[in-house]
Amino acid sequence: MATPEDDTSQVVYLEDWISLCPFEIQLSPDKMEATLKLPAITHQTKKVLSPVENLELAESFEKRVRLETDKQGIVFGIVPDFSSQLRSWIEDHKAATILFAKGQKPIDGEDSKLEILFQKKPHIKVTSETQNLRDLNFITNIPQGTRLARHTKATPGIAGKTVTNQEIPSKAGVEKPVTIGPYITSIKEDSKIIYLASQDCIF
């Protein structure tokens, strides 16, 4: 006569339980992260599972998760290693919270900037009233065609997205006006403006 210990008819194996396993999808308040909370696995397997079989179980379970995340509108930023994280959970049998999706933060634009390209004479402090100012040589000679400055325009920034595919606006950079004086011309170089001396001059 079979004893209760011998009766395996009521045993639920992992391979069958995985299709009914409870899980919880947690969405951060700012909707920038979605995580999956998974319980510990206490069920045994019908046999020793190979890595391929573990992967197949993970992929089957992932389909269930994807159906639920689609219902909740979590469709952006799915992490590429989600399947491998599920496989690790199945192999380890421990409760886990794993990352499912991560949003993209907006990148603010940069303000315009002006870079001086020519070498100015260093400032020399006058130490005596009788010092010959000509000897200090404050003046910088600028030959025609000398590159004086590089103007980089402000950038608009890049919008971000939540895991629910909602756009997060970015802040555009500020374009600061540039006023050029006489004897200066400009050319466009890539996306920048280069200011040049249009004739020999001094600074």
Keywords:
20% helix, 2 domains, 203 residues, 3-stranded antiparallel sheet, alpha+beta
Largest sheet: 4 strands, antiparallel
- Strand order, biggest sheet? 4-6-10-9
Return the domain count. Answer: 2
Distance between the termini: 109 Å
Mean pLDDT: 85
General form = rod-shaped
- Helical stretch tally: 4
Assembly level: single chain
Order of helices and strands: HEEHHEEHEEEEEEE
Number of strands: 11
Low-confidence stretches: 1-8
What structural class do helix, strand and pairing data support? alpha+beta
Compute the CA-based radius of gyration.
34 Å
**Strand residue content:** 15-25%
Describe the structure in your own words.
The chain has 203 residues and is α+β, with helices and mostly antiparallel strands. It folds into 2 domains: 14-102, no CATH class; 113-202, no CATH class. Helices cover 20% and strands 23% of the residues. The protein contains 4 helices and 11 strands; from the N terminus they run αββααββαβββββββ. The protein has helices spanning 14-17, 51-71, 82-92, 133-136, and strands at 24-27, 33-38, 96-102, 113-116, 141-142, 147-152, 160-161, 167-168, 184-189, 192-197, 201-202. Strands 4-6-10-9 form a 4-stranded antiparallel beta sheet, with no helix packed on it. Strands 1-2-3 form a 3-stranded antiparallel beta sheet, with helices on one face. Strand 7 (160-161) and strand 8 (167-168) form a beta hairpin. Helix 2 packs across helix 3. The longest helix is centred in the N-terminal third of the chain and has 21 residues, at 51-71. Residues 1-8 have low confidence and may be disordered.
